[in-house]
Design goal:
Largest sheet: 6 strands, mixed
CATH topology: Oxidized Rhodanese, domain 1
Number of domains: 1
Oligomer: single chain
Structural class: alpha/beta
CATH class: Alpha Beta
Distance between the termini: 44 Å
Strand order of the largest sheet: 1-2-7-6-3-5
Number of strands: 10
Strand content: 15-25%
CATH architecture: 3-Layer(aba) Sandwich
Length: 139
């Protein structure tokens, strides 16, 4: 990242607050959502352009990502950002930033999200929560 961009550098990676992330997205950065399919189905970042590349599949999908734009990596809370950034750096990507706090931070700050009410989780306990879509699909 260049010196005039926002963010905090930790161990060589630039981390952006949700507000800083929204600014770089408005300037042409591309959000890369690393979350699992069911989490993306439930709630999406309310940004005009993004790519869904679940973190376990990222290495096999790097060719889909542009090298000429800042890639803003985002997951649920920040757990997979360092590993995902390393995958990209190993493939020659240099313009990388991480969304500090992930979707949880983004949503908590009140930034736009798109929610699918049918995909929201329900259940008596976190260990048995399911999506209403799962019930209709017979899963």
């Amino acid at each position: 990242m260049s010196e005039n961009r926002p963010g905090t550098t930790v161990h060589g990676l630039c981390y952006l607050t949700p507000r800083e992330a929204q600014e770089v997205l408005a300037q042409g950065a591309l959000l890369v959502d690393l979350r699992a399919d069911e989490l993306v189905e439930m709630k999406q970042f309310g940004v005009p352009e993004w790519i869904h590349a679940p973190h376990p599949d990222l290495a096999g999908r790097v060719a889909e990502l542009p090298k000429d734009r800042l890639l803003l990596l985002a997951d649920t809370s920040g757990v997979y950002l360092r590993a995902a950034a390393q995958v990209l750096m190993d493939h020659g990507y240099e313009q990388i930033a991480c969304l500090n706090g992930g979707m949880l931070g983004w949503d908590q700050e009140g930034f736009p999200v798109a929610t699918d009410a049918d995909a929201l989780m329900y259940g008596e306990c976190a260990c048995v929560m399911r999506s209403r879509k799962d019930r209709r699909a017979g899963r």
